[in-house]
Amino acid sequence: xxxxxxxxxxxxxFPHVNPGAVVSERRTVQGVLAIRVSQATIRKATISDVxxxxxxxxPFNLHDGRLRAEVKCCWYGHKPPETWMQLSLGxxxxxxxxxxxEVADDIAD
Length: 109
Hints:
Elements: E1 22-42, E2 45-52, E3 60-63, E4 66-71, E5 74-75, E6 85-88, E7 92-108
Parallel strand pairs: 5-7
Antiparallel strand pairs: 1-2, 1-7, 3-4, 4-6
């Protein structure tokens, strides 16, 4: 079931960083552009999983010298107001076209 994507980041109901956070919810997709990551980071958590890339013109960007991918995933049921989550990629990642299967949908503890 997709996360509700609450965009209120000021409600104080969740931590803004958590090294112990893990994929807590999944959803099934069909025919999407996905990315399989190993040892990627988001808000100090290290994650290895499959994510759906955001349907934007350029889902990849550089931030502080690190390659990031914009992925359709929530953090404790919350989505940033302007974009989807920015996942910092490690050295091991792979794009998957027309992916069918489960993707990470929410990261929490």
